[in-house]
UniProtKB/TrEMBL annotation:
<keyword id="KW-0479">Metal-binding</keyword>
<feature type="disulfide bond">
    <location>
        <begin position="47"/>
        <end position="127"/>
    </location>
</feature>
<dbReference type="InterPro" id="IPR019793">
    <property type="entry name" value="Peroxidases_heam-ligand_BS"/>
</dbReference>
<dbReference type="GO" id="GO:0006979">
    <property type="term" value="P:response to oxidative stress"/>
</dbReference>
<comment type="similarity">
    <text>Belongs to the peroxidase family. Classical plant (class III) peroxidase subfamily.</text>
</comment>
<keyword id="KW-1015">Disulfide bond</keyword>
<feature type="binding site">
    <location>
        <position position="79"/>
    </location>
    <ligand>
        <name>Ca(2+) 1</name>
    </ligand>
</feature>
<dbReference type="GO" id="GO:0140825">
    <property type="term" value="F:lactoperoxidase activity"/>
</dbReference>
<feature type="binding site">
    <location>
        <position position="258"/>
    </location>
    <ligand>
        <name>Ca(2+) 2</name>
    </ligand>
</feature>
<dbReference type="InterPro" id="IPR010255">
    <property type="entry name" value="Haem_peroxidase_sf"/>
</dbReference>
<feature type="binding site">
    <location>
        <position position="206"/>
    </location>
    <ligand>
        <name>Ca(2+) 2</name>
    </ligand>
</feature>
<feature type="disulfide bond">
    <location>
        <begin position="212"/>
        <end position="244"/>
    </location>
</feature>
<dbReference type="GO" id="GO:0020037">
    <property type="term" value="F:heme binding"/>
</dbReference>
<dbReference type="GO" id="GO:0042744">
    <property type="term" value="P:hydrogen peroxide catabolic process"/>
</dbReference>
<feature type="disulfide bond">
    <location>
        <begin position="80"/>
        <end position="85"/>
    </location>
</feature>
<dbReference type="GO" id="GO:0005576">
    <property type="term" value="C:extracellular region"/>
</dbReference>
<feature type="binding site">
    <location>
        <position position="82"/>
    </location>
    <ligand>
        <name>Ca(2+) 1</name>
    </ligand>
</feature>
Length: 338
Protein backbone atom coordinates (compact mmCIF):
# COMPACT_ATOMS: atom_id res chain seq x y z
CA UNK A 1 0.00 0.00 0.00
CA UNK A 2 2.71 2.44 1.11
CA UNK A 3 4.72 1.32 -1.90
CA UNK A 4 1.82 2.16 -4.18
CA UNK A 5 1.40 5.64 -2.70
CA UNK A 6 5.10 6.38 -2.94
CA UNK A 7 5.13 5.31 -6.53
CA UNK A 8 2.09 7.39 -7.24
CA UNK A 9 3.56 10.54 -5.70
CA UNK A 10 6.78 9.87 -7.57
CA UNK A 11 4.72 9.72 -10.74
CA UNK A 12 3.05 13.04 -9.89
CA UNK A 13 6.46 14.60 -9.18
CA UNK A 14 7.81 13.50 -12.54
CA UNK A 15 4.69 14.84 -14.19
CA UNK A 16 5.14 18.20 -12.45
CA UNK A 17 8.78 18.40 -13.47
CA UNK A 18 7.91 17.55 -17.05
CA UNK A 19 5.23 20.19 -17.28
CA UNK A 20 7.56 22.76 -15.71
CA UNK A 21 10.21 21.82 -18.26
CA UNK A 22 7.61 22.12 -20.95
CA UNK A 23 6.69 25.62 -19.77
CA UNK A 24 10.35 26.64 -19.71
CA UNK A 25 11.14 25.26 -23.15
CA UNK A 26 7.91 26.39 -24.78
CA UNK A 27 8.26 30.12 -24.41
CA UNK A 28 11.83 31.17 -24.99
CA UNK A 29 12.13 34.84 -25.89
CA UNK A 30 14.72 36.45 -28.11
CA UNK A 31 17.22 37.01 -25.30
CA UNK A 32 16.90 33.45 -24.05
CA UNK A 33 14.91 34.37 -20.93
CA UNK A 34 11.45 33.08 -20.23
CA UNK A 35 8.74 35.48 -21.28
CA UNK A 36 5.55 34.39 -19.59
CA UNK A 37 3.54 36.89 -21.61
CA UNK A 38 4.27 34.94 -24.77
CA UNK A 39 1.75 32.13 -24.68
CA UNK A 40 -1.34 30.43 -25.96
CA UNK A 41 -3.86 32.64 -24.15
CA UNK A 42 -2.06 35.88 -24.83
CA UNK A 43 -5.06 37.81 -26.20
CA UNK A 44 -7.82 36.16 -24.15
CA UNK A 45 -8.37 39.28 -22.05
CA UNK A 46 -7.05 42.03 -24.32
CA UNK A 47 -8.90 40.89 -27.45
CA UNK A 48 -11.45 38.17 -26.70
CA UNK A 49 -13.09 38.44 -30.14
CA UNK A 50 -9.81 37.85 -32.03
CA UNK A 51 -10.48 34.17 -32.71
CA UNK A 52 -13.93 34.84 -34.16
CA UNK A 53 -12.73 37.76 -36.30
CA UNK A 54 -9.94 35.69 -37.87
CA UNK A 55 -12.26 32.72 -38.32
CA UNK A 56 -14.87 34.85 -40.07
CA UNK A 57 -12.31 36.70 -42.22
CA UNK A 58 -10.69 33.52 -43.51
CA UNK A 59 -14.03 31.80 -43.97
CA UNK A 60 -15.44 34.70 -46.04
CA UNK A 61 -12.34 34.80 -48.25
CA UNK A 62 -12.41 31.00 -48.63
CA UNK A 63 -16.08 31.07 -49.67
CA UNK A 64 -15.19 33.44 -52.49
CA UNK A 65 -11.88 31.78 -53.43
CA UNK A 66 -11.07 28.28 -52.18
CA UNK A 67 -7.42 28.65 -53.14
CA UNK A 68 -6.97 31.39 -50.54
CA UNK A 69 -6.40 28.72 -47.86
CA UNK A 70 -3.26 27.56 -49.66
CA UNK A 71 -2.13 31.11 -50.32
CA UNK A 72 -2.45 32.16 -46.66
CA UNK A 73 -0.56 29.07 -45.49
CA UNK A 74 2.26 29.83 -47.92
CA UNK A 75 2.33 33.50 -46.88
CA UNK A 76 2.91 32.44 -43.27
CA UNK A 77 5.73 30.09 -44.35
CA UNK A 78 7.36 32.81 -46.45
CA UNK A 79 7.13 35.20 -43.51
CA UNK A 80 8.74 32.81 -41.02
CA UNK A 81 11.57 31.73 -43.33
CA UNK A 82 12.89 35.23 -43.94
CA UNK A 83 14.48 36.60 -40.76
CA UNK A 84 11.86 34.87 -38.61
CA UNK A 85 8.11 35.24 -38.15
CA UNK A 86 7.90 39.04 -38.06
CA UNK A 87 5.25 39.87 -40.68
CA UNK A 88 8.07 41.32 -42.80
CA UNK A 89 6.53 39.80 -45.94
CA UNK A 90 3.53 42.09 -45.51
CA UNK A 91 5.56 45.31 -45.68
CA UNK A 92 5.45 47.42 -48.82
CA UNK A 93 8.67 48.91 -50.18
CA UNK A 94 9.76 52.22 -48.63
CA UNK A 95 12.54 54.71 -49.36
CA UNK A 96 14.58 52.89 -46.68
CA UNK A 97 14.25 49.31 -47.92
CA UNK A 98 13.16 47.06 -50.75
CA UNK A 99 10.80 44.60 -49.17
CA UNK A 100 9.99 40.94 -49.69
CA UNK A 101 6.86 41.26 -51.80
CA UNK A 102 8.95 41.75 -54.93
CA UNK A 103 11.52 39.06 -54.18
CA UNK A 104 11.63 36.31 -56.81
CA UNK A 105 9.75 33.63 -54.84
CA UNK A 106 6.98 36.11 -53.95
CA UNK A 107 6.53 38.40 -56.96
CA UNK A 108 3.47 37.42 -59.05
CA UNK A 109 3.13 34.40 -56.80
CA UNK A 110 2.49 35.12 -53.12
CA UNK A 111 -1.12 36.12 -52.54
CA UNK A 112 -3.59 36.79 -49.73
CA UNK A 113 -2.17 40.14 -48.57
CA UNK A 114 -5.58 41.85 -48.82
CA UNK A 115 -7.23 39.17 -46.70
CA UNK A 116 -4.72 39.72 -43.89
CA UNK A 117 -5.05 43.51 -44.20
CA UNK A 118 -8.84 43.26 -44.04
CA UNK A 119 -8.79 40.97 -40.99
CA UNK A 120 -6.29 43.34 -39.38
CA UNK A 121 -8.67 46.28 -39.99
CA UNK A 122 -11.51 44.39 -38.29
CA UNK A 123 -9.26 43.45 -35.39
CA UNK A 124 -8.15 47.10 -35.01
CA UNK A 125 -11.80 48.16 -34.71
CA UNK A 126 -12.43 45.63 -31.94
CA UNK A 127 -9.09 45.97 -30.11
CA UNK A 128 -6.94 48.89 -31.31
CA UNK A 129 -3.13 48.47 -31.29
CA UNK A 130 -3.33 45.15 -29.48
CA UNK A 131 -2.80 42.28 -31.91
CA UNK A 132 0.32 41.94 -34.06
CA UNK A 133 0.22 41.16 -37.77
CA UNK A 134 2.53 38.17 -37.15
CA UNK A 135 -0.13 36.63 -34.95
CA UNK A 136 -2.96 37.43 -37.37
CA UNK A 137 -1.00 35.75 -40.18
CA UNK A 138 -0.21 32.68 -38.07
CA UNK A 139 -3.85 32.40 -36.93
CA UNK A 140 -5.14 32.86 -40.50
CA UNK A 141 -2.80 30.10 -41.73
CA UNK A 142 -4.01 27.77 -39.00
CA UNK A 143 -7.61 28.59 -39.84
CA UNK A 144 -6.86 27.86 -43.49
CA UNK A 145 -5.45 24.43 -42.67
CA UNK A 146 -8.50 23.67 -40.51
CA UNK A 147 -10.99 24.84 -43.14
CA UNK A 148 -9.27 22.57 -45.68
CA UNK A 149 -9.66 19.55 -43.41
CA UNK A 150 -6.23 19.62 -41.78
CA UNK A 151 -5.24 19.54 -38.11
CA UNK A 152 -5.55 22.18 -35.38
CA UNK A 153 -2.40 23.06 -33.47
CA UNK A 154 -1.74 25.32 -30.47
CA UNK A 155 0.00 28.59 -31.36
CA UNK A 156 2.02 30.58 -28.84
CA UNK A 157 0.98 34.17 -29.40
CA UNK A 158 2.36 37.57 -28.45
CA UNK A 159 5.17 37.91 -30.99
CA UNK A 160 5.72 41.42 -32.37
CA UNK A 161 5.89 42.83 -35.89
CA UNK A 162 9.29 43.62 -37.36
CA UNK A 163 10.44 47.09 -38.33
CA UNK A 164 12.00 46.24 -41.66
CA UNK A 165 12.03 43.76 -44.55
CA UNK A 166 14.61 42.60 -47.06
CA UNK A 167 14.19 41.58 -50.68
CA UNK A 168 17.72 40.18 -50.67
CA UNK A 169 17.07 38.02 -47.59
CA UNK A 170 13.90 36.65 -49.17
CA UNK A 171 15.78 35.74 -52.35
CA UNK A 172 18.50 34.01 -50.34
CA UNK A 173 16.52 32.28 -47.61
CA UNK A 174 13.40 30.95 -49.32
CA UNK A 175 13.75 27.51 -50.89
CA UNK A 176 13.54 27.13 -54.67
CA UNK A 177 11.90 24.18 -56.44
CA UNK A 178 15.04 23.92 -58.61
CA UNK A 179 17.57 23.34 -55.86
CA UNK A 180 18.54 19.90 -54.56
CA UNK A 181 17.22 18.40 -51.33
CA UNK A 182 20.55 19.04 -49.55
CA UNK A 183 20.24 22.76 -50.21
CA UNK A 184 16.62 22.89 -49.11
CA UNK A 185 17.44 20.91 -45.97
CA UNK A 186 20.28 23.33 -45.22
CA UNK A 187 17.81 26.23 -45.38
CA UNK A 188 15.52 24.44 -42.94
CA UNK A 189 18.31 23.55 -40.49
CA UNK A 190 19.52 27.15 -40.52
CA UNK A 191 16.06 27.99 -39.07
CA UNK A 192 16.28 25.36 -36.35
CA UNK A 193 14.16 22.88 -38.27
CA UNK A 194 15.31 19.43 -39.39
CA UNK A 195 14.99 16.96 -42.25
CA UNK A 196 11.76 15.59 -40.83
CA UNK A 197 10.29 19.10 -40.89
CA UNK A 198 11.27 19.34 -44.57
CA UNK A 199 9.25 16.22 -45.36
CA UNK A 200 6.34 17.10 -43.08
CA UNK A 201 5.97 20.77 -44.04
CA UNK A 202 6.30 19.97 -47.74
CA UNK A 203 3.01 18.15 -47.14
CA UNK A 204 1.44 21.62 -47.28
CA UNK A 205 1.60 21.05 -51.04
CA UNK A 206 -1.49 18.90 -50.56
CA UNK A 207 -3.38 22.14 -51.31
CA UNK A 208 -2.83 24.99 -53.74
CA UNK A 209 -1.32 25.58 -57.15
CA UNK A 210 1.94 26.20 -58.93
CA UNK A 211 2.54 28.12 -62.14
CA UNK A 212 3.92 26.24 -65.14
CA UNK A 213 7.29 27.98 -64.90
CA UNK A 214 7.88 26.27 -61.55
CA UNK A 215 7.91 22.76 -63.07
CA UNK A 216 7.89 23.14 -66.86
CA UNK A 217 11.51 22.17 -67.36
CA UNK A 218 10.57 18.67 -66.15
CA UNK A 219 8.19 18.21 -69.09
CA UNK A 220 10.30 18.78 -72.17
CA UNK A 221 14.07 19.04 -72.15
CA UNK A 222 15.01 18.07 -68.59
CA UNK A 223 18.56 19.19 -67.80
CA UNK A 224 19.58 19.02 -71.44
CA UNK A 225 18.56 15.38 -71.93
CA UNK A 226 15.96 16.24 -74.56
CA UNK A 227 13.54 14.11 -72.57
CA UNK A 228 11.14 14.68 -69.66
CA UNK A 229 12.21 14.17 -66.05
CA UNK A 230 12.51 10.39 -65.60
CA UNK A 231 11.18 10.65 -62.05
CA UNK A 232 7.84 11.96 -63.34
CA UNK A 233 5.18 9.38 -64.27
CA UNK A 234 4.72 9.33 -68.07
CA UNK A 235 0.95 9.88 -68.08
CA UNK A 236 1.46 12.82 -65.70
CA UNK A 237 4.02 14.19 -68.19
CA UNK A 238 1.49 13.98 -71.03
CA UNK A 239 -1.22 15.58 -68.95
CA UNK A 240 1.01 18.43 -67.77
CA UNK A 241 2.42 19.04 -71.27
CA UNK A 242 -1.18 19.76 -72.28
CA UNK A 243 -1.54 22.28 -69.46
CA UNK A 244 1.83 23.92 -70.04
CA UNK A 245 2.70 23.97 -73.72
CA UNK A 246 6.39 24.67 -74.16
CA UNK A 247 5.97 28.38 -74.81
CA UNK A 248 6.66 31.26 -72.49
CA UNK A 249 3.01 32.26 -72.79
CA UNK A 250 2.04 29.34 -70.58
CA UNK A 251 4.43 30.30 -67.78
CA UNK A 252 1.79 31.69 -65.46
CA UNK A 253 -0.87 29.04 -66.02
CA UNK A 254 -1.78 27.07 -62.92
CA UNK A 255 -1.60 23.37 -62.13
CA UNK A 256 -2.69 21.82 -58.82
CA UNK A 257 0.13 20.73 -56.53
CA UNK A 258 -2.03 17.73 -55.58
CA UNK A 259 -4.21 16.75 -58.53
CA UNK A 260 -5.94 13.98 -56.56
CA UNK A 261 -7.57 16.18 -53.88
CA UNK A 262 -6.58 19.74 -54.76
CA UNK A 263 -8.47 21.59 -52.01
CA UNK A 264 -8.37 18.92 -49.34
CA UNK A 265 -5.69 18.96 -46.66
CA UNK A 266 -4.96 15.23 -46.55
CA UNK A 267 -2.01 12.88 -47.10
CA UNK A 268 -2.60 12.47 -50.86
CA UNK A 269 0.55 14.54 -51.49
CA UNK A 270 2.60 11.61 -50.16
CA UNK A 271 0.58 9.05 -52.12
CA UNK A 272 1.39 11.10 -55.23
CA UNK A 273 5.10 11.06 -54.39
CA UNK A 274 5.03 7.29 -54.06
CA UNK A 275 3.17 7.25 -57.40
CA UNK A 276 5.78 9.52 -59.02
CA UNK A 277 3.26 12.23 -59.80
CA UNK A 278 4.53 15.09 -57.62
CA UNK A 279 4.38 18.41 -59.46
CA UNK A 280 7.61 20.06 -58.31
CA UNK A 281 11.08 18.57 -58.70
CA UNK A 282 11.77 19.46 -55.07
CA UNK A 283 8.70 17.46 -54.02
CA UNK A 284 9.57 14.34 -56.00
CA UNK A 285 13.17 14.61 -54.74
CA UNK A 286 11.93 13.50 -51.32
CA UNK A 287 11.70 10.02 -52.88
CA UNK A 288 15.32 10.18 -54.07
CA UNK A 289 16.84 9.86 -50.59
CA UNK A 290 16.29 6.70 -48.55
CA UNK A 291 15.73 8.52 -45.26
CA UNK A 292 13.12 10.97 -46.59
CA UNK A 293 11.55 8.31 -48.82
CA UNK A 294 10.87 6.18 -45.75
CA UNK A 295 9.04 9.10 -44.13
CA UNK A 296 7.05 9.79 -47.31
CA UNK A 297 5.99 6.14 -47.47
CA UNK A 298 4.91 6.21 -43.83
CA UNK A 299 2.80 9.36 -44.33
CA UNK A 300 1.31 7.98 -47.56
CA UNK A 301 -0.24 5.13 -45.63
CA UNK A 302 -1.05 6.89 -42.36
CA UNK A 303 -2.96 10.15 -42.53
CA UNK A 304 -3.15 10.41 -38.72
CA UNK A 305 0.62 10.28 -38.44
CA UNK A 306 0.86 13.06 -41.01
CA UNK A 307 -1.73 15.24 -39.24
CA UNK A 308 0.00 14.88 -35.89
CA UNK A 309 3.47 15.55 -37.29
CA UNK A 310 2.28 18.45 -39.44
CA UNK A 311 0.77 20.05 -36.34
CA UNK A 312 4.04 19.85 -34.40
CA UNK A 313 6.18 21.05 -37.31
CA UNK A 314 3.86 24.03 -37.81
CA UNK A 315 4.27 24.93 -34.14
CA UNK A 316 8.06 24.84 -34.63
CA UNK A 317 7.84 26.93 -37.79
CA UNK A 318 5.55 29.49 -36.15
CA UNK A 319 8.14 30.06 -33.43
CA UNK A 320 11.10 30.90 -35.67
CA UNK A 321 12.73 34.16 -34.62
CA UNK A 322 9.78 35.61 -32.69
CA UNK A 323 10.35 39.25 -31.75
CA UNK A 324 9.73 40.57 -28.26
CA UNK A 325 10.43 43.82 -26.42
CA UNK A 326 11.89 46.79 -28.25
CA UNK A 327 12.81 44.74 -31.34
CA UNK A 328 9.26 44.97 -32.60
CA UNK A 329 5.95 46.79 -32.47
CA UNK A 330 2.26 46.21 -33.06
CA UNK A 331 1.59 47.72 -36.46
CA UNK A 332 -1.63 49.61 -37.07
CA UNK A 333 -1.65 48.40 -40.65
CA UNK A 334 0.22 45.31 -41.80
CA UNK A 335 1.64 46.94 -44.94
CA UNK A 336 3.74 49.56 -43.15
CA UNK A 337 5.52 50.21 -39.87
CA UNK A 338 3.94 52.76 -37.51
C1 LIG B 1 10.44 22.63 -49.10
C2 LIG B 1 10.66 23.63 -49.93
C3 LIG B 1 9.55 24.30 -50.70
C4 LIG B 1 9.63 24.69 -51.99
C5 LIG B 1 10.82 24.54 -52.92
C6 LIG B 1 8.36 25.26 -52.34
C7 LIG B 1 8.06 25.80 -53.56
C8 LIG B 1 6.80 26.20 -53.97
C9 LIG B 1 6.47 26.66 -55.29
C10 LIG B 1 7.44 26.81 -56.44
C11 LIG B 1 5.14 26.93 -55.30
C12 LIG B 1 4.34 27.46 -56.48
C13 LIG B 1 4.41 28.97 -56.53
C14 LIG B 1 3.90 29.55 -57.82
O1 LIG B 1 3.98 28.88 -58.85
O2 LIG B 1 3.39 30.70 -57.81
C15 LIG B 1 4.62 26.64 -53.99
C16 LIG B 1 3.32 26.77 -53.62
C17 LIG B 1 2.85 26.53 -52.34
N1 LIG B 1 3.63 26.24 -51.23
FE1 LIG B 1 5.55 25.67 -51.25
N2 LIG B 1 7.53 25.21 -51.25
C18 LIG B 1 8.21 24.64 -50.23
C19 LIG B 1 7.75 24.45 -48.93
C20 LIG B 1 6.51 24.86 -48.48
C21 LIG B 1 6.11 24.89 -47.11
C22 LIG B 1 7.01 24.56 -45.93
C23 LIG B 1 4.82 25.32 -47.08
C24 LIG B 1 3.92 25.58 -45.90
C25 LIG B 1 4.06 25.05 -44.71
C26 LIG B 1 4.41 25.53 -48.45
C27 LIG B 1 3.16 25.88 -48.86
C28 LIG B 1 2.79 26.10 -50.17
C29 LIG B 1 1.41 26.27 -50.60
C30 LIG B 1 0.19 26.10 -49.72
C31 LIG B 1 1.46 26.56 -51.96
C32 LIG B 1 0.27 26.89 -52.89
C33 LIG B 1 0.02 28.39 -52.81
C34 LIG B 1 -1.16 28.90 -53.61
O3 LIG B 1 -1.86 28.14 -54.28
O4 LIG B 1 -1.37 30.14 -53.58
N3 LIG B 1 5.47 25.27 -49.27
N4 LIG B 1 5.67 26.21 -53.19
C1 LIG C 1 -12.73 36.98 -54.68
O1 LIG C 1 -11.65 36.23 -55.20
C2 LIG C 1 -10.98 36.81 -56.31
C3 LIG C 1 -9.86 35.88 -56.73
O2 LIG C 1 -10.36 34.64 -57.08
C4 LIG C 1 -10.45 38.18 -55.96
O3 LIG C 1 -9.87 38.77 -57.12
C5 LIG C 1 -11.56 39.06 -55.44
O4 LIG C 1 -11.00 40.26 -54.99
C6 LIG C 1 -12.28 38.37 -54.28
N1 LIG C 1 -13.42 39.16 -53.88
C7 LIG C 1 -13.65 39.47 -52.62
C8 LIG C 1 -14.86 40.25 -52.35
O5 LIG C 1 -12.91 39.16 -51.72
C1 LIG D 1 23.36 24.35 -53.51
O1 LIG D 1 24.23 24.86 -52.51
C2 LIG D 1 25.57 24.95 -52.93
C3 LIG D 1 26.41 25.31 -51.71
O2 LIG D 1 25.87 26.40 -51.04
C4 LIG D 1 25.68 25.97 -54.04
O3 LIG D 1 27.00 26.10 -54.49
C5 LIG D 1 24.80 25.53 -55.19
O4 LIG D 1 24.77 26.53 -56.20
C6 LIG D 1 23.37 25.28 -54.72
N1 LIG D 1 22.61 24.68 -55.82
C7 LIG D 1 21.49 25.23 -56.30
C8 LIG D 1 20.89 24.57 -57.46
O5 LIG D 1 20.97 26.22 -55.81
C1 LIG E 1 -1.37 5.45 -57.35
O1 LIG E 1 -0.95 4.60 -58.38
C2 LIG E 1 -1.65 3.39 -58.43
C3 LIG E 1 -1.01 2.52 -59.46
O2 LIG E 1 -0.63 3.28 -60.58
C4 LIG E 1 -3.11 3.65 -58.74
O3 LIG E 1 -3.84 2.48 -58.75
C5 LIG E 1 -3.67 4.56 -57.66
O4 LIG E 1 -4.99 4.92 -58.00
C6 LIG E 1 -2.82 5.77 -57.54
N1 LIG E 1 -3.33 6.50 -56.42
C7 LIG E 1 -3.74 7.73 -56.53
C8 LIG E 1 -4.31 8.30 -55.28
O5 LIG E 1 -3.66 8.35 -57.56
Amino acid sequence: MLMAITRFSYFILVLLCLSLLHLVTSFPSANGQIDYNYNYNYYDRSCPSLGMIVKYGVWAAFKNDTRIAASLLRLHFHDCFVNGCDASILLDDTIDFRGEKNALPNRNSARGYEVIESIKADVEKACPSTVSCVDILALAARESVLLSGGPYYPLSLGGLDGLTASEKAANEQLPSPFEPLENITAKFTSKGLDIKDVVVLSGAHTIGFAQCFAFKRRLFDFKGTGKPDPTLDSSAVANLQGMCPNKDASNSKLAPLDSVSTYRFDNAYYVNLVNRTALLESDQALMGDSKTAAMVTAYSSNSYLFSADFASSMVKMSNIGILTGSNGQIRKQCGSVN
